[in-house]
Amino acid sequence: MSNFKYSDSNKRYHTLDYYYKKKYNTKVAKISLNLGLTCPNKDGKVGFGGCIYCSKLGSGEFAGNKLLPIKEQFNSIKKIMLNKWPNCKFIAYFQANTNTYGDLSFLIKNWEEVLTYDNVVGINISTRPDSISKECYDYLEKLNKKTDLVVELGLQTIHDKTSKLINRCCSLECFNSAVEELNKRNIKVLVHIINGLPYETKEEMLETVKYLNNLNIWGIKIHMLHILKDTALEKMYEKEKFHVLSKEEYIDIVCDQLEYLKDTIVINRITGDPKIEDLIEPFWLTKKFCVLNDIDKEMVRRNSYQGIKA
């Protein structure tokens, strides 16, 4: 049985909001930023076209406007956050594309700059496991001593056949090596996975979570595959009409995954959040709060908690 105490939360899993409120005694909001970077899976270093679900805007399409200086991006989103939570603190989230893939001096300049902004308590850096140089790891170790640092790694699945199908162009061994290097430096690791990838079974999705549960990771983001317009995935779906998970199937899988995850692992995200104008399938995903509520209800119905089977 899980030992995690949910004393100030109606959730039966270890939410990011709970984690930060416990740590900082206030709301902590993420501000998504865009450095105008690219990806080695687009520019030909490891592949072309990106992962098949990647939109023409790339990952992090909700991030700031890359044409604006980083401070302007930050301040425009900060105003919105302060209207919701007047006393909140901030995480500077370098989200769009691959945020360790670029000139290191340019990256350091921007990472260091956000630390000078008021009430910034941490930095999240989203990247690929194959895109962190030795010099970058060494700098991140120093940065980790200055702020609450999280490095986000896109894994999506542990299964090689699916990895090839989605054109991930990064091996599981490479992912493992990146986790090991970050662990050596005591840097928190956050892993992205996707449920509903074409032709994956429920058992394969659970195997991905069970695998991660045996690694030293701080957090996880669970996404539902969504098919966006103008992507390679849209073309595949039009041709093959592969099965897209129903809301009920997704909720069942997520609740099983939560049961297998240690309750120390922080659940940073538990559903997708696509823009309706770009979406092909599934449209149930646009009702984010309904999905979240139904996950809560199912955990209550099961009388279950995160980590109960860990």
Estimated share of beta-strand residues: 15-25%
Question: Please, how many helices?
Answer: 10
CATH architecture: Alpha-Beta Barrel
Shape from CA axes?
globular
Helical/strand content category: alpha/beta
CATH top level class name:
Alpha Beta
Helix content: 25-40%
The main sheet orders its strands as 1-2-3-4-5-6-8
Number of strands: 9
How is the main sheet built? 7 strands, parallel
Please give the domain count. Answer: 1
Computed CA radius of gyration, to the nearest angstrom: 19 Å
How would you describe this structure to a colleague?
The chain is an alpha/beta fold and 310 residues long. It has a single domain, classed as Alpha-Beta Barrel (TIM Barrel), CATH 3.20.20. It is 37% helix and 17% strand. The strands form two sheets. A seven-stranded parallel beta sheet has the order 1-2-3-4-5-6-8, sandwiched between helices. Helix 7 links the parallel strand 5 and strand 6. Helix 7 runs parallel beside helix 9. 41% of the residues are buried.
